[in-house]
Amino acid sequence: MNTLDTTLLVLGGGPGGYVAAIRAGQLGIPTVLVEGDTLGGTCLNVGCIPSKALIHVAEHFHQVQAPNPFGVTAGAPTLDLTQAIDWKNTVVDRLTTGVAGLLRKHKVKVIHGHGQIVDGKTVEVGDTRIHCQHLVLATGSCSVALPSLPLGGAVVDSTGALAPTTLPRHLAVVGGGYIGLELGIAYRKLGVKVTVIEAQPRLLPTYDAELTQPVIDRMLQLGITLLPGHAVEGYDPATQQLTLRDPAGSTHTLDTDRVLVAAGRVPRTTGYGLERLNLTMAGRAVRIDDTCRTSMTNVWAVGDLTGEPLLAHRAMAQGEMVAEVIAGHTRAFTPAAIAAVCYTDPEIVVAGQTPEQAGAGALVAMFPFAANGRAMTLGATAGFVRVVARSSDHLILGWQAVGPGVSELAAAFSQSLELGARLEDIAGTVHAHPTLGEAVQEAAMRALGQALHI
Ligand code: FAD
Ligand code: NAD
């Protein structure tokens, strides 16, 4: 067996792991990164990036043929699915190659292979044994498997749904959360019949009903069938029938030639010797403190392995911080908020506290895009921006928005929370016109009883 000594070993090259390794390299820490699949992890290869690329293709295809009030008409478009997937893959390759280049530039040694933990200072990859002083676990998460719907053939997970070689006639989406709705809407816009089956009484149950209503309205307008409160009993590939149980307990069948299982993701904790470390867990996740320390000295964990929220920007921020802590800097991971975006139509973005979390005494105000000039010029006026603030001193506690392209408001929302802005700060900032961001200013003005355009 070959042996290798290093100061830092990062296990997993997704956004948590590769950012930790790049930052460690920048700080002069001798670093080895072990990746069993492709650099970039779930996010770049089978998650954030390919899903947003596919959503963009679908939107483009849909817009060309959508009836509109602008007087623009076009012939029926055609879709070259192979070319669309090739384009998506080009975007992914560009990013993963970029990550490899950055790691090289910062002198991180990348070892391709499946790592097996021997102990808190030793990992084996094939016939190489690596000894380290610090071990960062960044092994990510995997899809929840439903026993009634084993993957294979017509039953796919998000990875399969992001790389189709053909489009189905009817896609049944099991799980009305982030993945189910983002990909369900995209497939519908590509011309596929779509049914979304959600176990809970509401779709996107983690968001409040006011926020999700414009998305529900749009899905119904697009012709997507929504089945909240339904349980899935199984799929028969021979008859291409999915058996469902409705809220009243009756069973039904659905003719469908593809089933997307999108019932959540869980930390990846098996198959690589994690149990040998006997770490303290928090449910299914590795428990960490606010410096990403686990219960074992010099063993750290970042990203999806450490539990909710399972978001790439959280993994990256933790990865950057943990490298600095290992380098001896005084750091802690205590963000004022971690924004979350759902790339539905319309998009949803949340940051900080909701009205419910802030309690009855909080100031809450919303400004609808129906009164925003830029939204009107985009022909997309559904949705609103909502602000939540402390009534005593107007400190902003949270933002929520649903509307066209509101993902880009995440920056403004996070910055205002991180900088401790008050309603007066946002209301008193001159916002460019005409922009969707004016709705942010108007929401703050409305909370102060000073809205101008409503
Ligand atoms: P991962 O990205 O999962 O990376 C872990 C890496 O570790 C993998 O490359 C894996 O191969 C490697 N690994 C695991 N075990 C070993 C081992 N023993 N040896 C060697 N290598 C190993 N988040 C967002 O913020 N925005 C989005 O828009 C978004 N969209 C998504 C869409 C989809 C379809 C999916 C599935 C997820 C999406 N996410 C999104 C979530 C995001 O992808 C994850 O939060 C993020 O990738 C987590 O980063 P990570 O580094 O913790 O883990
Ligand atoms: P999710 O937790 O968002 O949604 C899963 C949904 O499936 C839930 O609504 C749940 O009630 C439902 N469900 C569970 N079991 C079911 C069953 N047997 N039948 C019907 N419905 C069932 O999970 P996801 O959509 O799989 O996404 C996984 C994670 O990936 C998310 O937690 C998110 O953090 C991340 N992600 C983020 C983005 C983004 O940031 N835009 C996009 C995609 C994924």
Automatic annotation (TrEMBL):
Catalytic activity, reaction form: N(6)-[(R)-dihydrolipoyl]-L-lysyl-[protein] + NAD(+) = N(6)-[(R)-lipoyl]-L-lysyl-[protein] + NADH + H(+)
Domain annotation Pyridine nucleotide-disulphide oxidoreductase dimerisation: ranges: 338-444
Principal cellular location given in the protein's record: cytoplasm
Keyword vocabulary terms for this entry: Cytoplasm, Disulfide bond, FAD, Flavoprotein, NAD, Oxidoreductase, Redox-active center
Compartments in which it is found: Cytoplasm
Residue stretches in coiled coil: none
Highest taxon above the source species: Bacteria
Cofactor dependence: FAD
Known EC number: 1.8.1.4
Domain FAD/NAD(P)-binding, chain residue ranges per copy: 8-319
GO MF annotation, one: dihydrolipoyl dehydrogenase (NADH) activity
Cofactor note: Binds 1 FAD per subunit.
Subunit (UniProt): Homodimer.
Note: The active site is a redox-active disulfide bond.
Annotated family: Belongs to the class-I pyridine nucleotide-disulfide oxidoreductase family.
Protein's UniProt name: Dihydrolipoyl dehydrogenase
Origin species: Pseudomonas quercus
